[in-house]
Amino acid sequence: MIQNQKTIFLYALIATLVVFNLGIFLGYMLEASRINKINQMYLETDMNILDQRILNDAQDIIEFDCEYLVEENIKFGDKIFEDALQIKKYEDANRINEDITSQHRKYDLLRTLFWTNSMNIKQKCNSDFHTIVYIYKYNNPSVQQVSEQKFFSNLLTEIKEKYGNNVLLIPIAGDNNLVSLDLLMKKYNIIELPTILIDENTKMTEVKSMEEIEKYLE
User: Fold this and answer.
1) pLDDT at 22
2) Model confidence pTM above 0.90
3) Topology of 128-218 in CATH?
């Protein structure tokens, strides 16, 4: 009887170790799959924004139709917004390694480039679309910041869905040590996170309703 109990215990221990190690292996495989998907998204976005910059710079040499230029920029803005939602889903999942954090930093750089590109197009073409840059705390946010940022994010998503192409929503982490973004934050005196910047002239750190933002979009 004692021998049988020892045998059963040994089998149970082996089974537990196998299941545990299999779970770890599958976790790493799932994380690697997420990272590969983000890498692919980054490469596609990188090519698209390079294309946009070339198109924007070429406007100084070749006469372009501003309507076409603005339309393509808005399409790309929508793509960046969709990618941001997808990456958020990956980051909300159980994260085993920090590679996704590194990829997030790359996306912040691309979003910053897209922001400056949008400002140039808006100025050259005298366009009336609105830019809403949402700069938030990414690394070790406080409990209060987590709560505020969740509220801000949901609110801005609703605004984007309501106003569509009239609004370019650009979420960027403000604490990933990007020199280009740091310079822009300094220019617009953005110190507190999270902060919402509307059309490069209205800065908001406290928002309680959509109406408070919508009045600047009229």
Assistant:
1) 57
2) no
3) Glutaredoxin (3.40.30)
